Amino acid sequence: MQEMLQKFMLYYNGFESRPVFDNVEEMLKWSGLYGLTRRTLEEELIDAGLNTQTISELVTVITRINYGQSTSISGLAGAVSLAGSESGLWSIKGGNWQLAAGLLKTANATLHLQEGIESISDAGDYYVLKSNKGHEYNCTVTVVATPLDEVNITFIPPISIPPRKMQHTHTTFVRGLLDPKFFGLSSVSDIPELIGTMELPDIPFSCISVRKKHGEHDMTYKIFSRAKLEDALLDQMFSTREETIRIDWPAYPHYQAPEDFAPIILDGRHLYYVNTFESAASAMETGAVAAENVARLIISRLPLGLRAGLSSAAVPEPHIESSAGEEEGSRRVDL
Ligand SMILES: Cc1cc2nc3c(=O)[nH]c(=O)nc-3n(C[C@H](O)[C@H](O)[C@H](O)COP(=O)(O)OP(=O)(O)OC[C@H]3O[C@@H](n4cnc5c(N)ncnc54)[C@H](O)[C@@H]3O)c2cc1C
Q1: Do 215 and 293 have their domain in common?
Q2: Which pLDDT belongs to residue 89?
Q3: Residue 307: pLDDT above 60?
Q4: Which residue range(s) make up the domain with 289?
Q5: Which residue has its alpha carbon closest to ligand 1 atom 32?
Q6: Which of 24, 35, 235, 333 could cysteine-pair with 261, CB 3.0–4.6 Å?
Q7: What is the mean pLDDT of residues 179-208?
Q8: Longest dimension (CA), the chain
Q9: How many domains does the chain have?
Q10: Mean predicted confidence (pLDDT) in 304-330
Q11: Closest by alpha carbon to 132, among 110, 149, 152?
């Protein structure tokens, strides 16, 4: 994992020693991380000498918490998941939302909230984006910054990307108190603040954690599960339940090594896709690194006249790693 982190840190190198990439495969090969997307975490760990008990009773618990999946995820997603379980993780005081807010402010961007893009049409020199509010936006460059696997955006002409399943994480927030009897315990105080689970078919959730203690017998819990937790089950798990909120998130890709990657440039022109990188590993930081590469790629491919007005510090040398080319027999789906 330390080796993976060291390699990932290369993406923080200065512009002069870090190329701009037009496909995820080359981006991963440059840092030495591509191989980890070709094999499962379990294969990697067995080769590293871990025994099966440690894998099923410790590592699996972590991958179920972070990705809702078993150790059959790719080695890279697994290493990112394990990194996320280490101490010393950073977050922004007051909430990580401030990062996005700060970026929007610095970029002087206009944000259209509560408005979805329904179609993106290539009009020659620009794209026409039509929204569900009936608005049209003409854009020289269009960046898709959401996973395309479950959204309903029509591309004209159609684009082609490999099929990818998303792992749904059902998140249930409950205010109340867990029942120790459900866990074979005699007292509430015996229930740990984080309950992780192994990969066993009769366990209905991936993890439960205490989000907030309002009082000795009044907590807010967060539960992750692969399927909706029905009221009947929650009534068995909790002795009291005042409020329940459920969110079904298409949270991250369902990893299946060897991974296939959608292109970053979707149409050979100026239609870009950030979230293809999530097939390597999905997290806020990997998303930011992928987005920075896309920003530099756009600048490097824009005609000089259109680059005017961009800060010179942000303009990298137009050094693009060559495309990996389409692998023979790769599966693709038309959107
Ligand atoms: C339950 C859960 C726990 C997680 N825990 C962690 C964690 O601990 N650490 C971590 O690093 N990561 C975590 N992640 C992953 C992290 O949330 C994602 O990696 C990150 O949010 C991806 O950012 P993004 O900007 O690429 O996509 P998103 O955050 O999904 O943003 C995409 C945006 O696009 C918008 N959108 C979608 N379709 C359209 C459309 N047609 N038109 C206009 N807008 C559209 C969406 O509304 C959304 O606002 C977790 C995810 C989940 C679900």
Answers
A1: no
A2: 82
A3: yes
A4: 1-86+255-261+275-335
A5: 146
A6: 24
A7: 96
A8: 72
A9: 2
A10: 48
A11: 152
Cβ(11)–Cβ(20) under 8 Å?
no
Amino acid 3: pLDDT: 87
d(CA 240, ligand 1 centre) in Å:
32
**Among positive and negative, which fits the CA dihedral 53, 166, 261, 139?**
negative
Q: Are residues 279 and 243 in the same domain?
A: no
Q: Give the global pTM.
A: 0.90
Could you tell me the pLDDT band of residue 309, with boundaries at 50, 70 and 90? Answer: low
Whether 297 maps to a domain, the answer reads: yes
Are 187 and 245 contained in the same domain? yes
Residues 182 and 240 in one domain: yes
Q: Which of 219, 253, 287 is the last residue of a domain?
A: 253
Ligand 1 closest atom vs CA 275: 26
Residue 321 scores a pLDDT above 70: no
How far CA 246 is from CA of 147, 151, 175, 205, in Å, comes to 21, 20, 12, 13
Burial of 122 (0-12, 13-18, 19+ CB in 10 A): middle
Asked if residues 119 and 156 have their Cβ atoms less than 8 Å apart, the reply is yes
Q: Judge whether 316 lies within some domain.
A: yes
Tell me which residue has its CA closest to atom 12 in ligand 1: 283
User: Is 280 found in the same domain as 214?
Assistant: no
Residue 105 domain flag? no
Closest CA to 140 of 330, 310, 320: 310
pLDDT, one tens digit per residue, over 52-99 is 999 999 999 999 999 999 999 999 999 999 998 887 788 899 999 999
Residues 82, 4 within the same domain: yes
**Does 100 map to a domain?**
no
7 and 78 in a single domain? The answer is: yes
Which protein residues touch ligand 1 with a CB less than 6 Å away?
116-117, 145-146, 151, 153, 169, 171, 249, 251, 275, 282-285, 287
Nearest CA to ligand 1 atom 33: 146
